[in-house]
Amino acid sequence: MFKHARSAIVTGFMLSAFAAVASAQSLTVVSFGGDSKAAMEKAYFQPYEKETGTRINAVDWNGEMGKIKSMIDTNSVQWDVVEVEAPELERGCSEGLFEEIDYSKVLPESAFIEHAAQECGVGTFIWSVALAYNKDKLKEGPSSWADFWDINKYPGKRALRKGAKYTLEIALMADGVSPKDVYTVLATPEGVDRAFKKLDELKPHIQWWESGSQPGQYLVAGDVVMSSAYNGRIAQAIKQDKRPLDIVWNQSLYALDYWAIPKGAPNIERSLDFIKFASQPKNLITYSSNIPYGPPTHEAINALPDDIGKDLPSSKQNIENAIALDVNFWTDYGDALEQRYNAWVAQ
């Protein structure tokens, strides 16, 4: 009798201990911090904790891939889900630093827009490089990159990012290449020559920018009449700083950040469950309501309220004639094109 009672006590203790462990479940989710992390807290972290009882340990990083490699090499992976940019995702996947995504435990790949569902990463938000201008300086705003090149109609300096990426794509679109054909053309020697020839036309009128804050500053100061710019920076200047700026979404270039799982992460199943939760339309829309980055799924894009969607790179009307940054292209050709670009700038 005592033996049975003792067995019951032990069994009860074990069940209590298991429940305590289960309730103490946690995930370490790593992001780039700042306003985006604050939006993630509202859209993903807090709701996931409430729904599942899993505690989210939110950690910031700056994209240092060496940290992940070091964890893997020393068999001490402590991070579960990491926000990574497209080039790091591509490189990390090829080097075996990330787990392959089992989409049957997230969403069907067809649920995502182009380039959002990658072998080792699930798109979490879309940002873009678009044409921006100061409405107080131009009575009639530009509508395309061809207008950006039109010095007669829009006299004055223009600003472009100091680098081959985005700049060469923009030059080809200004020269009449359709967004869907840009990378096909740019992958040929003739296409590269065509892009640089187009840049030659505008070179005397270009003021280069290197940090994301500069286009808005140049536009407000009247240093330039228009600029390529990161959409989030311009949207922030419009909404928070009440600047008279506007964005032209036609022929914009968009890229994604992704959720990835480091190789050997301790909670792969739970990590996939978190990514699935963060990919639901309701949660994606909450995120986009708090920061002007777009959701990566068709359903969320279609469900966006008009007052939010009009300011996002992924909304149906804004993405219609946009181009997705081709990470594979820049992995293959980036070094050579940047070298040629740097030599061209120095001439």
From TrEMBL:
<dbReference type="Pfam" id="PF13416">
    <property type="entry name" value="SBP_bac_8"/>
</dbReference>
<dbReference type="InterPro" id="IPR006059">
    <property type="entry name" value="SBP"/>
</dbReference>
<feature type="signal peptide">
    <location>
        <begin position="1"/>
        <end position="19"/>
    </location>
</feature>
<protein>
    <submittedName>
        <fullName>ABC transporter substrate-binding protein</fullName>
    </submittedName>
</protein>
<keyword id="KW-0732">Signal</keyword>
